Amino acid sequence: MRKKSIAPELDPVDRSILRLLQEDGRLSNTKLAERLSLSETPCWRRLKRLESEGYIDGYQANLNRRKLGYGVLAFVQLSVSIHTDEATARFEHVVQSCPEVIACHNITGQADFLLQVVAPDLDSYGQFIDRVFRKLPEIRAIHSSVSLREIKASNRLPLP
Question: How far apart are CA 117 and CA 109, in angstroms?
Fold first, then answer.
């Protein structure tokens, strides 16, 4: 069985640009071109094309949540009892407006949604759950798992 190729329309130079920017999003075009053994103009054109075609969603710094006072990282499974468009829109609006929710996925399995939530401490986390999710009538069940130790956390995608 043949292995499916990831983004076959990208050539090795495009993949190298993406790989290098995942490692260091602050690389200047000059440094990027230097590492790729390209001149700056073709490198800049490739980079702009990768951005315009949506391969690069944006640039951001990875912040240390503990240094910023977020000692709790929780994984929250939410089950809903109301599956109307209106209830879903209300839930999505609440999630989008909560900075404590750093990720939310509509999932398969016993729960409907899986969220990653940060909080300064367990008391704050409990207050957040009470203040936000226990107030929504469509939430049927809330199951939380608190991270005891982070083994690996990354937004980097594997690039062949």
Answer: 20
Per DSSP, helices labelled H in 67-143 are: 85-97, 122-128
The closest alpha carbon to 76, from 57, 56, 101, belongs to: 101
- The model's pLDDT over 104-148, given as tens digits with 9 standing for 90+, comes to 999 999 999 999 999 999 999 999 999 999 999 999 999 999 999
| Domain ranges, residue 36 | 12-52
pTM here? 0.85
- Which CATH number does the domain housing residue 20 bear? 1.10.10.10
The two tokens of residue 156 are: 């980097």
Q: Please tell me the distance from the alpha carbon of residue 131 to that of residue 95, in angstroms, as a whole number.
A: 13
Residue type, 14: D
